[in-house]
Amino acid sequence: MDVGIVRSIDFNAAANLAAAVFFLAVPVVVVLGLAWWGRLRVRRPALALAAVMVYEALVLYSAVWGQFHRIDVDAEGRWLLHYWLPARTVVLGPRNVAAVRAAPGDPWTWRTVRVVVETRDGRRLRSTQFGRERTQALVRELRALVR
């Protein structure tokens, strides 16, 4: 039986992804630019690019991996948490959500927070980061949906 969505909350993950792309592009441009003009003196430029790739993997991991970007609540009270990477939807039963709280974002981002949904079995599911301005209203709204 298909039950309609009564509430949908989007955490504006596109802005988070745009910031990640910016932080990914800057080091590559800097390393390639310095190598082009002869200012980067390394014997193996592949090692410098490998270090940049490790940095990029860490940025991408902290920006979007394992973080839900949208919550849908259906008429039966189930929470559907939508993830980008890995692409999946986690369904929480109406009585499985124990708490909803705000948590600080990553240290390399400025003025961001995330929502953490704690389940009764001890899992902590975290959202993508978003601006602090919306924090109190979102957490209040999500707490009202907890049964």
Overall description:
- The chain crosses the membrane at residues 17-37, 46-68.
- The chain is 37% helix and 30% strand.
- By secondary structure, it is of the alpha+beta class.
- It folds into 2 domains: 14-62; 66-145.
Strand order of the largest sheet: 1-2-3-4
Mean pLDDT: 84
Percent strand: 25-35%
| Structural class by secondary-structure content | alpha+beta
Helix content: 25-40%
Largest sheet: 4 strands, antiparallel
Query: Order of SSEs, N→C?
Result: EHHEEEEEEEH
Helices, by number, come to: 3
Q: How many domains?
A: 2
Computed Rg: 19 Å
**Number of DSSP strand runs:** 8
Which of globular, elongated, flat, extended, rod-shaped describes the shape? elongated
The low-confidence runs, each spanning 5 or more residues with pLDDT under 50, are none
The CA-CA distance between the termini, in Å, is 22 Å
Key attributes of the depicted protein:
3 helices, transmembrane helix, 147 residues, single chain, alpha+beta, DUF2244 domain-containing protein, four-stranded antiparallel beta sheet, elongated, transmembrane, 2 domains
